[in-house]
Structures are given as C-alpha cells and as structure tokens.
Amino acid sequence: MLIKAYIKAPLGAFIFSIFYLISFYCFTEVIPEKKIKSIANKNLVKTIENILKVSEEWHVDAALILAVAHTESSFNHSAVSSANAYGLMQVVPSTAGKDIAKWLTGSNVNIPPDYLLQPEKNLMMGAAYLNYLQTHYFSYIKNKDLNRLLTIVAYNGGIGTIIRTFRLDEKKNKLRISQMSYKGLYKYILNKHPFEETRNYLIKVEHRYAQYKKIISQGKQE
Questions:
Q1: How far is CA 217 from the centre of its chain?
Q2: Which domains are delineated in the chain?
Q3: Rounded percentage of the chain residues whose pLDDT exceeds 70
Q4: How many CA atoms lie less than 13 Å away from 63 in the CB half-sphere?
Q5: 100: Cβ–Cβ under 8 A, 6 or more apart, which residues?
C-alpha cells in the first residue's frame, strides 16, 4: 500500500493505526471510500507525523492535538469556517492567533490567513495555544485530566467565558475546581457552560482523545 512509503520507523506502528482510525471515522464522513487511498495517503500520514512533532516540541499530548484537529477540521488543512477560523486546528487570527503571536514575539503581530493555511504552521500555532492554555491560564490545575477538560473548553468557547461562568477570578473557586474529580468537573462543565456548541465540542474531543490515546499507548508498547 502507498501508506508504507510515508511511514518512518519507529513511529510506523501507531501512525498506521491512527491513519486507519481517522480514515474510518473522519474521512468517510466527507470523502467517498474509493477516494480515501488517493487523497488521504498523500496528506494524512504527513499530518500525523507533524502532529507528533509539534506534540514533542510544545509538550502537548499528541492524542489531544489529534482529537482537536479531528473535531475542528476533519483534518482538512484548507478548512475555513464562517467565523474566519483557518486550517487544521481552526485558528482564528484575531483571537487565538493574536494571543499566541504576542506570547511568542512579545508584540502585536497580525497573522495572515495564508500562514494559517500552511499545515505545519497551523499545527504549530494550535499546539502552542494548547500549551499556552495548559501552562498559563490553567497552571493551577495540576491534575492532567482536569487541566485537559478546561483547556478543551477554552479552546472552543474562549478563556473569558470559563472565567466568568466558573468565577475563576476568585481563589476559592480555583481551589474548588482543582479539587474536583474528573467525572465531577466533566458533568459540571456540561451542566454549567452557557454554550451548547462548546458542551458538545467537549464530548466529541474527549471521546476522540480516548481513542487516540489508546492507539498511541498500544503503539509505544509494541
């Protein structure tokens, strides 16, 4: 199969598995099955390799990046939404793009759409933003699972909405959130977050995260 030409050891085992998970659960939703080989083989394995690369560079769980890219764009690097979000990770230049550019450069920089439509650049920006959320805004959440839940919700619905909804400007509320169980915080978000889109987004990303996490864990053990 053509896919073998794109795989580099020792990552081949779980890149191969991830490829087929994406093909069956993502590409089949938008691309006829007979075209999967001709389209996905040329781009998808490279995308997976780039995700694993930015995961290591930005210290963000590869399964989380995969789950976000899957949910945001169905791994379509040319995707453009009605809200002017671009590329694989659906980065909005005026919000996440602006925040990350300022964090990385120390100044206000306008990120052009053409930049965000480059797969490697887009994945870098998306991974950097996930890192930014995890290590800056939610650094007080030491539990990785709780941190991930808040990061996913902030990535979609905005940081400000979380702060206002859960009143995280108050130390006592930060402490309360940080001491919740995974199930407790998950249910709390689904019950309290004001945006239905964001609640549904959390459900989808967490489900896909579990799938990718399992595949990657199995691949590392082989």
A1: 18
A2: 2-221 (1.10.530.10)
A3: 79
A4: 20
A5: 125, 128, 129, 132
